[in-house]
Amino acid sequence: MISSIYEGISDEIGIEVEYELENQSFVASWSGGKDSAMAYYRAIKAGAIPKQLLTMFEPDEKQSKSHALPIEIVKAQGESLGVPLMIRGADWESYEAQFLDAMKECKVVGIYHGVFGDIDIEDHLNWVQTTCAKVEMEAVHPLWMEPRRKILEEFIEVGFEAYIIVVNTKTMPAHFIGRKFTTELMDELEALGIDSCGESGEFHTVVVDGPIFSERVPVVFSELSERNGYVFLGVRLEESE
Description:
One of its GO terms (molecular function) is diphthine-ammonia ligase activity. By secondary structure, the protein is of the alpha/beta class.
């Protein structure tokens, strides 16, 4: 069982805070980064059965929102997970409608639980819980209210491999782009007063390997680009010989 205390939020919107996940099918909210990977990992450790991934993309459906991953990378992650990928393209105005449409599609095929990687930002939790409640989907947050550093240390300890691919240069130096996510990296960030979890959008990661994957996703990093104060590292699949 996964238990979480939502500091009154769950009472406000009438949703239970304890879930028995064993043998329950779920759709994973999948950004392609470390938090979604850890939430997925925790859910399957609790006995839940992954049936679908949901990734929100830009309206043209060429790259994911926030993490800016090309669709070929997200598809490759899904193939290594062995779970079908569902995408929805949306701008921020249509985001909720597209999200709800995806949740309804999951319910049609018997998926009634959604797994999300929120840690401790109440606005995020409130939106997910409230929105899922509109279609009677149970929103599960396996990481909720755990110490950020503890989650990250477990992420590394169990064998996940991830890299920083987006940096918000308003909150941290651009030279961290491309760095592998390690304990040493966390120490460096924290020494500079930067949240090593990036929970407020300081940076985003791509996960390429770990205990949930059948094989490593073969990525190649390419050119840097910059827009609106963010630096992005190009990511593509390695070409097979």
